[in-house]
């Protein structure tokens, strides 16, 4: 997900759907917007090798009945978590202000969001 400065292109939304089983996503499989949906299963997302430009926002939406989100990001990335789910949000620390932002919209019955830096 590397963008060159000044390049304007329409944002792309990737959609991953499964009934049972989660999704494993990394920088090679993500674009500016990603929707992952499953009846039972979480999302394991590794963004440690992704070059997100400062000020850019990467949006990931997770829909599931049962299943949380495990997110790995670099130390300079700011993470915003929204949505409704039973289970909390665990974040090891804030990212740098003004840096890139990853926004997680997690909607589900059971499952939390775990952010590791």
From TrEMBL:
Name of the protein in question: Cell wall-active antibiotics response LiaF-like C-terminal domain-containing protein
